[in-house]
Specification:
Helices cover about 40% and strands about 15% of the residues. It is α+β, with helices and mostly antiparallel strands. The chain has a four-stranded mixed beta sheet, with helices on both faces. Helix 12 (about 300-315) links the parallel strand 12 and strand 13 (about 320-325). Helix 7 (about 195-205) crosses helix 10. It is elongated and about 85 Å long.
């Protein structure tokens, strides 16, 4: 049975900010202390007081709230897409959820073409590298020649088959390097640099493998001894032979190929030699024949051509002979290169 509050108490009621509560200000109630007391709004009618009206937002305020909500969703989507691009444009569902996406946003992104649902638990941007997608579809990581360019390493010839590292799988459409010695890349679906080098030494032709390894050693990714420790035993004889071709002094892939070509032909070959009044030259064979290779940085503007002519003249004045070969010569016409070198070294220069 509700207590008798009296008319004075009813007039002393004050609406509270919470629509579900009201306060009695200094009520004089039978059996109730003089302290402020709160009663549920459901009891207001029992004492003859109307319930406080529900709060109503203006239409303008509601529009602002909706706009802010859409803006927050757009910002969240942009943040997730940026994080996805930093991860090589592919990511697992758990990573996307951790970055702030929701499953509803992922479904909507697939519907509007922003994302591709590669397989269960895996999403990608439409422009994601095809080899990333191929590796992730088989729950593998790229390695060897397929991972070299993603690590920023030199590569002579693009692979004709995908090179992956996937435990317990094999197939004719790809080359599988199952063992790993270091942790994989922390974001991209590729193995670590060291494993990429080891797989290249064991798999690729010797010159191709030497090019990949030389670019990594020059960059300081690892040291030669670290690779040698992991290439013990008879089965790694081919890999150790390829590693012996690496010196770490080549400044481009084509220079590595040229150095190996000259040394295999039996020439005494010095690399990256500095000559007074000339500067640094690519190779000096047998102490007096300067050989330079024009790669991607071939000089075509007039000022550069003038510098080249000055260098050539200075070399002749200092007693050196000089030959220059193109990328195509070194890669596809090696017999011609060796023949010209032998003619000059033998003193039978054709005039």
């Amino acid at each position: 049975m509700m207590p008798d509050f009296g008319v004075g108490a009813r007039l002393a009621l004050a609406r509270h900010a919470d629509s579900s509560q009201v306060s009695l200000v200094k009520p004089r109630l039978r059996g109730v202390s003089g302290r402020n007391t709160r009663l549920p709004a459901a009891n207001l009618h029992a004492i003859g007081c109307p319930s406080p009206p529900p709060h109503r937002w203006s239409s303008a305020h509601t529009a602002v709230l909706r706009t802010n909500a859409r803006s927050n969703r757009c910002n969240s989507k942009v943040d997730v897409l940026n994080a996805l691009r930093r991860s090589g444009s592919v990511a697992r569902t758990g990573d996307l959820l951790r970055w702030g996406a929701t499953r509803g946003q992922l479904r909507a992104a697939v519907d509007d073409g922003t994302l591709i649902h590669v397989r269960k638990g895996l999403y990608a941007l439409p422009d994601a590298p095809r080899d990333y997608l191929a590796a992730l579809r088989m729950n593998a990581r790229l390695t060897c020649a397929s991972a070299a360019t993603h690590h920023g390493l030199w590569l002579l010839t693009p692979p004709t088959r995908l090179h992956v590292s996937c435990v317990g799988r094999s197939g004719g459409r790809y080359v599988n390097h199952q063992f790993r010695t270091v942790d994989p890349h922390h974001r991209l679906p590729i193995v670590g640099v060291v494993d990429t080098l080891l797989h290249a030494l064991q798999c690729l032709p010797a010159v191709d493998a030497a090019v990949v390894v030389e670019s990594s050693l020059r960059r300081g990714d690892t040291v030669r001894a670290f690779l040698e420790e992991r290439l013990q035993g008879n089965r790694n004889g081919k890999a150790r032979a390829a590693l012996d071709l690496v010196t770490g002094c080549g400044e481009s892939a084509i220079e590595v190929v040229a150095r190996i070509l000259f040394r295999r032909a039996g020439f005494n070959c010095e690399t990256q030699v500095r000559i007074d009044g000339v500067g640094r030259v690519d190779f000096v064979l047998e102490g007096f024949l300067v050989v330079e290779v024009d790669g991607d940085r071939y000089h075509s503007d007039r000022a550069a051509r003038n510098r080249d002519r000055h260098r050539n003249n200075e070399l002749i004045a200092r007693g050196y002979l000089h030959l220059r070969f193109s990328y195509e010569d070194i890669m596809f016409n090696q017999d011609y290169v060796l023949d010209r070198v032998r003619v000059v070294l033998s003193g039978r220069v054709i005039r």
